[in-house]
Amino acid sequence: MPTSDQLAQFILSGLTTGSIYALIALGFCIVHNATGIVNFTQVDFVSLGGLVMYTLLLSWGLPLGVALPFSIAAVMVVGGLVQRLTIEPARSKEIIVLIFITIGVSIFLRGVFKVLWGKNQMALPSFSGETPFVILGATVLPQSLWIFGVTLAVVVLLHLFFGKTRVGKAMRAVSFNSRAAQLMGISVDRMVLLAFAMSGGLGAVAGIIIVPITTLSYDIGVILGLKGFAAAVLGGYGNSVGAIVGGLVLGVVESLCAGAISSTYKDVIAFALLLLVLFVKPSGLLGFGERERV
Amino acid sequence: MAELRKKILPHSALLIMALAVAVFPFLVTNPYYLNVANIIGLNIITVLGLNLLIGYAGQVSLGHAAFCGIGAYISGVLTVSYSQSPWIGILVALLVTALVAVVIGVPTLKLHGHYLVMATLGFNIIVNVIIIQWDMVTGGPSGFPGIPYIGIGRWVLDSDRKMFFLIWMVALVAVIISSNLVNSRVGRGLRALHGSEIAAESLGVNTKTYKVKVFVLSTLYAAISGCLYAHYLTFISPKTFDIFFSVELVTMVIVGGMGSIWGAVFGALVLTPLPNVLHFFDEYKDIFHGAILVIILIFLPEGIVVAAQRRWFATFKPKAGDMFLVEALPATRHRGDEIAQALKSADSLGRAEYSRVENPILKIQELSVTFGGVSALAQVSFDLPMNTITALIGPNGAGKTTLINTISGLQHPHSGRVFYLGQDITGRPAHAVASLGIARTFQNLQVFENMTVLENVMVGMHVRTRNEFVRCMFRLPGFAIEEKEIATRARQVLESLGIEEKAHLPASELSYGERKRVEIARALAASPRLMLLDEPAAGLNMTETNEMADLINQIRLEGISVMLVEHDMNLVMKISDKVVVLNYGIKIADGAPEDVQKDKEVLAAYLGTE
Amino acid sequence: MLEVENLEARYRGYAALRDVSLEVHRGEIVCLIGANGAGKTTLLNCISGVHHDCDGKILFHGEDVSSATPQQLVRRGIVHVPENRQLFSPMTVEENLELGAYLQAPQMRAKDLSDRMERILEHFPSLKGRRKQQAGTLSGGEQQMVAIGRGLMSDPHLLLLDEPSLGLAPMLVREIFRIIQELQREGRTILLVEQNALGALGISDRGYVLENGRVTLTGAAGFLIDHGHVRQAFLGQDVS
C-alpha cells in the first residue's frame, strides 16, 4: 500500500505526463474535427518539436525565448506542408486511404529526422534548472511546473480562439457542417490547412516541454503520440474537452498502476484502457464531440 | 484446342506461380536468396488474409503482426517448453488466435467507423509488451531460441529449400482458397458488404456475422504464417511482431491493391525484399519507404495491380473466360431449354411454397417511428392487397422512406406492427426480412459499383442459397451446382430486363438508367413475393420512365406485389391500383388514383395553401 | 440581375437539369416550384457554386459567375440559404448569425456588425431573447428564421431560399412567407425554391415550374396559380 506521499507523487507525475497526452490528444482532435481523419504524423510533430528546439537552442545557441516560438512555428509550417503536399492532392478522398497517407508521411518524416539528427539519444536542458521542489509531500521538478503552466496556457488560448475569434468559430463551423460553412464564404480548404498547422503546433509544444524530463530522439514522439491517441479515444474521440480529460486521466491511471502495481507493464495500460473503452463505451468518457455527420 | 485454352487461361497466373515455385529452389541455391523467398512466401500468406479483411469486408487491422506473433510464440513455447509436436503447437495456436479474434472482433465490428483500427493497434502494442515483459515464458527481448523443425513422418524440414516447398505450398493453397472464397456466394456477399452495407443486408447478407468471420479468418492466415516462421527460423523475437510490421503488412495490401488477390501477392512480393534492397541507402531507407508509400497512395490509391488491371481492361475489353485471374464463374450461354431449366431450378432453390393465399400480403398497423422527438410516422395503417401495385406518395419529409425502411428491417418502429402474409415481422433485422421474400430498391441507388452487373444480380440470390465459408473456400461437393444455378438464374433475370449483354461490365460503367435496372434485377433474382421500390423513376428521362412503368407492370403480372414510393405523379397515377398519401407522417388519403388526385386534403398537402 | 442560360447539370450520374434558363430582376420575388426530385436544389447549388458538374452560363449583374466559388459569390452578394436549415447546431443563435457575416466582419466596425444583427432580428420577433440559445434546441420555425437571418447578415443583393417552408406547420409557413415579403419591401431580390407551390406563388411576382429537370412553364404568379398545369405538374395528368 503506497503512502500518501507516494500517492501524491504518483498523481503529480501522472498529471505531468497526462498534460502531454492531453496536448497531443487535442492535436488529433482538431484535425479529426476538421477533416474526419486520424493524422498519424501527429506523433512526428511531437518529435520534431524537440528536435528543432535542440538545434536552435544547443547547436545555434539561441536563447530560450527565441528558440521556443521559432520551434513551434517551424513545426506548424511542416504541419501545413503535410496537408498541402500529401493530403490535398490525394486522388482518393476515402478516409482510410488518407489515414494511410499520413502513416506513410510519418515513416518518411522519421526517416528524415534520422538522417538529420541521427539515431542517438540527446538531451535538452530544463527551462529553469533541475532543483526539485517539494509540494504536498511530492518531489516536483521545475520542468513539471512548466509543463502544467504551458498546458494550461495552451488550453486557455485554444478556448479563447475557438470561442471568441472569428476564425476559430469558423473552424468549429466547418466541423459541424462544412457545406453550410462554405455557403457562408468560409474557405474549408484554408480551415483544414489551419487545423493541420495547429495540430503541428500542439505536438511541438508537447514535445518541447516533455523532452527535458525524458530524453530526445528522432522517434520519441511515437510512443507518446500513440498514447495521446489512446487518450483521445478514451475521452471521446473528437471531443476537445474529452481529449484533455482523457489525457489527464490516462496519465494518472498509468502512473498509479505503474507505481502501485508494477512498472514493467506500464506501456500496456494506455492501450488496455483503449480496448476497454472500445468494448464498453466506444463514445468515450465524455461521449462524442463536436463533429456532426453532415 | 480452343476448349483447352479456355479452361487453362483463367488459371494461367496460378499455373505460372506453381511452375515458378517448383523450379525456383533448383535454379537458386544461395541460402540467402532462398531465405528471402521464404519470408516473401510467409508474408504472402498473411497479406492474403489481411487483404480479405481490408479489400472485401472494408475493415482495416493494424494488429496483424500480433496475430503472427501469437502463432509463433504459442507454437514455439508449446514445442520447446512443453515438448509438444509442432502440429499440436500449430493447432493450439490457431484455436487461441480464433478465440482472441472473436473477443476483439465482436464488440468492435458492430460499430460503424474505424474502431477496429484503433482496437487492433492497441492490441498489437499490448501483445508486444507482454511478449517482452513476460520473459520467463517468452524469453523476453532477447528472443526465444531452439524451436524445433516441423516434420512430416520421417521427413524433417530442416533446410531453407525444404521449408521453401512447405511455405510456398501453403502460400499456393492460400491463394487458391482465397480466390475460391472471393469468387463464390460468400465472396460476393463480402464485396456487397463493402460496396453498400444496407443493400447487402437487404439482400440477406448477415453483415455483422460476416465481418467477424472474415476478421477471424484473416487472423488465422496470420497465425499460420507465424507458426511456420517459428519452425523455420527456430528463433523468434518480439521485434518481428511490432506495430511497424503491422503497418508494413497493410502497406503491402494497399500497394498491390485492396481487394485483389494477385495484388496482395504482388504487394508482398515487392515490398518484402524492399528493405534489403534499400539497405544500400541504409540511412535513407525509411525516407524512400515512406515516399514510395505516399506517392502510390496519392496517385494510385486503388493499388498497382488493380490500376494495371483496369488499364488492361479498358484497352483490351476481355470477355469472361479470358481473364488473367483465377476465375470460377462458368460462362454459360443459355438457350431456350436452358431457360426452362433455369426457371425450374430457380423454383427449386427455395421459392417458398405458399399453400394458402393470404390477402392482404402486407398489413401495416398503427406504425409509429420517432426520431429525436420528431414524429416521422404517426400511427399509419393500411393494407397492401396481393398482386397489386400500391403507391405511397406525399411531399418531401412525409415519412415515405422511413416507412419502407421500417418494413424492410432497416429501421425499428416505436410502436405498431407490420404483418406479412399474416405473420408479424415487426422489428426483424433486414437480412431476415429478405429471407421471407421481401425485396427492395433504394432511393439513393445502392448498386454495388465494385462488382460486375452479373455479380450484382447474383448477390440477389444470396438469401435463397446456402454455400458458406468452408464450402466455398474448399469447393466441397455441392458448391458447383449451387453456383451454376445462381449464375444461370442471374443471367435469366438480366435477359428479361434487356441488359444481359452488359453482364460482365463493372456496374459503374453503366448509365444511370441501366444501373436502376440492375438494382431491380438484383431484387428480382430471389423471386420475391413483395417488392418495395423506393423512387424507381428518380433521375430518369421520359422514355426511361415509360420503360420503368412497363417493367413494374410486368413485375406485377409475374405475381409479385409491389409497393412503390414515387414523386413522378404521371407514373403513379398510370400504373397504380391503389394510392396511399402521407403528410407529416400521417396518412391523409387511401384509395383509387382518380379519387386521390381530387382529394382536397391531398391537394392542400401538395400544392400548399394560399 | 441574375440570368441563367441553358444550364445543364449532372448529379450522381444522371442529368438533373436539362437546358434550364431563367432570370430574376431586381426587387422581384421569383419562385421556382416543382415536385421533389425535379432539380430545384441542384439549380440553386449550381448558382451558388457548390455543385460543380454544371454547364451553361450564369450571369450576375451582367458578369459571368458560372465558375465562381461560393466565397466569391458571397462577396458579390449572392447568398444561398440551404434546404433543411443546416445551422451550426451546437453554436448559439448569435454565433450562427455572426458567421453569416464572416467575410465582411474584418472590414466592419463591431458596432456596425451588431447594429446589423439587431436590424435583422427585428424581422424575427420569436428569436428575441434567444440570442444565446443553442441553435439545435430551437423549434423548426425558429431554426428557419435563424437560417434566413444568417443569410441576411452579409447584406446580399440576391437571396436564394431553398424550401424555407419545409417541415413547418401551416401557421409558421405563413409567418415565413410574410417575412419574405417584408424582405422584398426592404429592397431585396429573392429567388424562392418551394414545394409549397400555391404558398410560394402567392407571394411571388413570377414563377418557373420545374419538372424532371426542365422548365415546363413560366409566367406571372397569378397566371400560374390559375393555370391547371401547376396541379398537373404535382399530381399528374388527370386519370379519371
List key phrases describing it.
heterotrimer; A: 294 residues; mainly alpha; ABC transporter involved in vitamin B12 uptake, BtuC; two-stranded antiparallel sheet; C: 240 residues; 6-stranded mixed β-sheet
Structural features, described:
- The complex is a heterotrimer of chains A (294), B (610) and C (240).
- With 294 residues, chain A is mostly helical.
- Chain A has one domain: ABC transporter involved in vitamin B12 uptake, BtuC (Orthogonal Bundle), CATH 1.10.3470.
- Chain A has eleven helices and two strands; from the N terminus they run ααααββααααααα.
- A two-stranded antiparallel ribbon of chain A has the order 1-2.
- In chain A, α2 packs across α9, α5 crosses α6 and α9 crosses α10.
- Chain A starts with a helix and ends in a 14-residue tail after the last helix.
- Chain B has 610 residues and is of the alpha/beta class.
- Chain B has two domains: 312 residues, ABC transporter involved in vitamin B12 uptake, BtuC; 248 residues, Rossmann fold.
- Chain B is 57% helix and 10% strand.
- Chain B has a six-stranded mixed sheet with strand order 8-9-10-5-11-12, sandwiched between helices.
- The longest helix of chain B has 27 residues.
- About 6% of the residues of chain B have low confidence.
- The mean pLDDT of chain C is 88.
- Chain C starts with a strand and ends in a 5-residue tail after the last helix.
- In chain C, the strands form two sheets. Chain C has a six-stranded mixed sheet, sandwiched between helices.
- Chain C has 240 residues and is of the alpha/beta class.
- The longest helix of chain C is centred in the C-terminal third of the chain and has 16 residues.
- Classes of the chains: A mainly alpha (294), B alpha/beta (610), C alpha/beta (240).
- Chains in contact: A-B, A-C, B-C.
| Oligomer classification | heterotrimer
Label the CATH architecture of the largest domain in chain B.
Answer: Orthogonal Bundle
Largest sheet of chain B: 6 strands, mixed
Q: What is the second-level CATH architecture of chain A?
A: Orthogonal Bundle
Per DSSP E runs of 2 or more residues, the count of β-strands of chain B stands at 12
**Chains forming the largest contact:** A-B, 41 and 39 residues
Compute the separation of the termini of chain A in Å: 51 Å
Poorly predicted regions of chain B: 320-356
